[in-house]
Specification:
The complex is a heterodimer.
Chain A: H1 16-23, E1 28-32, E2 54-58, E3 62-71, E4 87-94, E5 99-103, E6 120-127, E7 133-139
Antiparallel strand pairs in A: 1-2, 3-4, 3-6, 4-5, 6-7
Chain B: H1 29-44, E1 53-56, H2 60-67, E2 73-75, H3 83-96, E3 103-106, H4 114-117, H5 134-137, H6 148-162, H7 166-180, H8 220-224, E4 228-231, E5 233-234, H9 253-256, E6 264-273, H10 289-300, E7 309-312, H11 317-326, H12 337-340, H13 357-361, H14 368-380, E8 400-407, E9 412-420
Parallel strand pairs in B: 1-2, 1-3, 7-8
Antiparallel strand pairs in B: 4-5, 6-9, 8-9
The chains are: A mainly beta, B alpha/beta.
């Protein structure tokens, strides 16, 4: 595996089930057992009803593009991403609810008009380290 | 005699996090906050959702975001271990003033466990740097950094939702530059080579290459042809980065009479937040200015129709455009039309950003003070430049102004309604 040179997230005790799922190629999401709503980012308390009964469920990995931007400026993006400009960042509405930030794969950053807000996307995971597989999304 | 605020508020419950001392498994500072908050709300029976004021030593926006709260009073005073006693003082004042009903003072600090986590999870005031901070953990992999890399997502969503265009938002930059050409103190006052040169241009600092080599009037084409920063945001959609300092003095009515310069009255004030990390922004075409302005207008007994000018934080053209909608100055989706139709321009019915804005006057990183200084200058008639309106010392004849600052990633807002002295 080529060395991964971009930022690698640090799992914490609250989010560990998500990262465990990612290693197996599964999108695990936190869901409140009281109001049944999924939230993102992971929390110890439901941000909607403030219950602390949170369970983890496997999601479909399907979503739609809520909005996106094309990052052109090396100096403004994080270390490691400068060599990849232009690239397309996007917020994804998850099929199960709530929203994730990502970088879109399989799109042309030089033709933003070809990328569709509302368009369907599917998750995939990239092995950044043995413990951390990072989710990315790609139009279907 | 007790003071007027004496017994205006009381502490009604107090609790701790579950795992304190030397816990077996480290919990982040944020988790310690949340456990204590859950416990104190369970104890009192006052639900978390009733909290409308949040006070902490630097943690307030993260804790409020984590709980999905939109507090009306946000205090992060962090001056050491005595901060919490000061928070109680500030909460007393806020409740006495009728601004909030339920104040949460909260603390979480993994003083011991951080030895075993390499410092992860301790958090920092204003967040963003802690690898365990959930907003950081779940966004840092994607490289977003400087503010333009985030705000561009809001601009694209606005265009998609309302059918607005990049050209519409470019009009904001064009008109704001026009104001700057009336203000000799504005960085973009005149073109390079015309009249006095700024030290930067003369090469005295930074070799001249970093100076404002493109001041003076611009057109929509100039904006559209400026280089892409974070599509659809281009260079001239972005504010300046300059040095700036400012200060204001505030007194009661009696002391105000002793000032050599006229008072500008704080008729209304409000604040709110929708999120801290843009990941948690629900509606990318709206900010909490809708709520902070509603509070300010209500306090003032005035509405957007009573505003004769506006000072709107313009870190980006999209910030100004969306905020104009939130302040009720334009219908949803039509904010940029205030500039495009020249209502916001010199001589227009609703002058906006008369100093030349963060886009063309000055923007030091946190522009809110510059908004206050200019609002005072215009409403008090102490502006030393131009007098475009025909009144000496005023670019406009306005006697009322709505001022709105925006912080974070379209995250936090503070709104003031200011009026001239009678």
């Amino acid at each position: 595996m080529a060395e991964y040179t971009k930022p690698i997230p640090s799992p914490d005790p609250v989010s560990q089930p998500f990262w465990d799922g990612a290693k197996e190629g599964k999108l695990m999401l936190p869901r409140c057992s009281d109001c049944n709503r999924v939230h993102w980012y992971p929390r110890v308390i439901c941000p909607f009803c403030h219950s602390m009964n949170i369970e983890w469920v496997e999601a479909t990995g399907k979503g739609t593009i809520h909005t996106f931007a094309v990052q052109h400026n090396k100096g403004l993006v994080a270390r490691g991403w400068g060599d990849e400009v232009p690239y397309v960042s996007a917020y994804i509405d998850l099929a199960e609810g709530d929203r994730m930030l990502t970088v879109l794969k399989g799109v042309d950053p030089n033709d933003p008009e070809s990328i569709e807000i509302g368009g369907a996307v599917q998750i995939e995971f990239e092995e950044a380290s043995e413990d951390v597989h990072i989710p990315f999304w790609r139009p279907v | 005699m007790p003071g007027e605020a004496s017994k205006a508020a009381a502490i009604v419950g107090a609790a701790e996090a579950n795992d304190i001392g030397y816990p077996q498994t480290p919990k982040s500072s944020l988790t310690l906050h949340i456990e204590a908050i859950k416990n104190v709300t369970d104890m009192t029976g006052i639900p978390i959702s009733a909290i409308d004021g949040i006070f902490s030593a630097g943690w307030s926006p993260q804790v409020a975001e984590y709980l999905g709260l939109h507090p009306k009073y946000i205090d992060t005073t962090a001056v050491g271990g005595c901060s919490f006693e000061m928070h109680v003082h500030h909460a007393l004042a806020a409740i006495h003033a009728g601004v909030i009903d339920v104040a949460l003072v909260t603390h979480g600090e993994m003083g011991f466990s951080q030895r075993f986590t390499g410092g992860k999870g301790t958090g920092r005031p204003f967040g963003g740097g802690d690898p365990w901070d959930p907003g950081t953990q779940h966004t840092s992999a994607y490289g977003l950094g400087g503010a333009p890399t985030a705000y561009s997502h809001a601009l694209n969503r606005h265009m998609s939702r309302y059918g607005t265009t990049q050209e519409d938002f470019a009009e904001i930059a064009v008109v704001t530059r026009e104001w700057a050409t009336l203000n000799p103190r504005a960085v973009m006052y005149r073109k390079a080579g015309e009249g006095d040169l700024a030290p930067l241009e003369k090469g005295e600092w930074g070799g001249g290459k970093r100076g404002h080599t493109f001041g003076g009037p611009i057109t929509v084409d100039t904006v559209m042809n400026s280089r892409p920063i974070s599509w659809p945001i281009k260079l001239l959609d972005v504010c300046l980065v300059t040095d700036h300092g400012g200060a204001v003095l505030i007194t009661g009515p009696e002391l105000a009479k002793t000032s050599k310069t006229p008072p500008v009255w704080i008729a209304g004030a409000g604040e709110n937040m929708s999120h801290w990390n843009m990941l948690e922004m629900g509606d990318f075409t709206a900010t909490s200015a809708g709520r902070s302005a509603a509070a300010a207008y209500k306090m003032a007994g005035m509405g957007p129709e009573d505003m004769e000018m506006a000072m709107i934080y313009d870190s980006f053209t999209v910030t100004a455009g969306i905020t104009a909608e939130m302040l009720g100055l334009a219908p949803a989706g039509e904010g940029p039309s205030l500039w495009k139709d020249r209502h916001a321009a010199p001589g227009g019915r609703l002058p906006i950003n008369t100093n030349g804005g963060g886009l063309s006057f000055n923007h030091s990183g946190m522009y809110g003070m510059q908004l206050l200084v200019e609002a005072y200058r215009q409403l008090s008639g102490t502006a030393e430049d131009g007098g475009f309106s025909g009144d000496p010392g005023k670019q406009t004849s306005a006697r009322s102004c709505v001022v709105n600052g925006t912080g974070g990633s379209l995250s936090t807002t503070g709104t003031l309604v200011l009026v001239s002295d009678d």
